[in-house]
Amino acid sequence: MNMVNQAFGRLLRHKRGELKLSQSGLAAKLQWPQTTVSRVEQGQRGVTLLELLAVAKACRCSAADLLGELGGLTVNAARNQAPSSQPGFTAGFSFAFASEEVMLAQLASYGVRFLGTETQPTFTTLPLEEVLLAALHFSNEPRLFEALPSLVLKSALTLDWNKLLSGAYTLHLQNRLGMVVAAALQLKTVTSGVDKKVWSMLQAAHGTLAKGKLDHEEFVGPRPKTDEALALLRSRTPGWLSFWHGTGSADLKSFQRYLSL
Fold first, then answer.
1. 92 three-state secondary structure
2. Where are the domains of the chain?
3. What are the residues whose beta carbons fall under 8 Å from the beta carbon of 260, sequence distance 6 or more?
4. pLDDT score at 259
C-alpha cells in the first residue's frame, strides 16, 4: 500500500476528529460518497490535486498546511525503513536522486533525451512523479530545467499530483517545482489544443506551492562570481521566475521546443 496514501489517510482521520465529524458528515462537506472517505482514510485510495484543495477547504486550512503535515507524517513513517524507500518512494528513487546519470536514464524512458548525452540502460522505470523529483534536484542545469515544463504540461492529467507535491515539500524542492510549473504555464500563449483541465491543474498546483514557498534563492545555471554580474542577472530574470526566488535566464522558445518530443 502506498505510504503517501496511508499517511494522508491518517491525516484525514485526524482532521475529521478535530472537526468532530463522522465520515458521512465529512463526505457531505466534500460532496463525496461516504465510501470514498472511508477508502481514503484507510489508505486504499489517493486523492487528486483538486480533491486535496477540497479537503483543505473543508478542514479550514490551506493545502500548503496539509502538505506540510503530510510530509512530516511520511518522514516519520519512513524513519525505520531503508533510505532507498523514503519517503514513500520506490526502491530505485534514491539512486536517481543521487546520480545525474541515473536520473537522465529515467528521463530518457519518458522520451526526454539530450543531444550529446549517452544515457545508461535502465532495467526498471520509476513513476514519473519520482523522476520529476529527482530531476528537480539537478534542475539548476539550464538544459534540464528547459525540458521539465513541457514534460509536466504533457503529463498533467496523468500525474499523481498529491505524491508530486508532497514529495516536493518533503524534499524541500517546492520552489524548484514551482519554477517548473510556472514555466509550463508560460507555454499557454504558444500552445493550442491543450485541455482546459490541464491549465486549471497547473494553476492550482502553482497556488498550492506558492503558499509554502521557501525564502531562499535558486539559480538556473551557475551563480555569478561578482556582485555586478549577479545584479545584472537578477535584472534580466523574468518576473514569473523571480517570484520563486529563481535567478537566471528563461527563454520561452527553449521550453517550447521540447513539446514535440
1. coil
2. 3-85, 93-192+210-260
3. none
4. 86
**Cβ count near 50 (within 10 Å):** 13
- Burial level of 193, CB count in 10 A (0-12/13-18/19+)? exposed
The CATH class of the 3-85 domain is: mainly alpha
- In terms of Cβ atoms closer than 10 Å to its own Cβ (0-12, 13-18, 19+), residue 102 is buried
CA distance 256 to 261: 10
Distance of CA 153 to the CA centre of its chain: 12
Confirm if 254 and 238 have CB atoms less than 8 A apart.
no
User: What percent of the chain lies above the pLDDT cut of 90?
Assistant: 58
Distance of CA 148 to the CA centre of its chain: 11
Residue 111 has pLDDT above 80, yes or no: yes
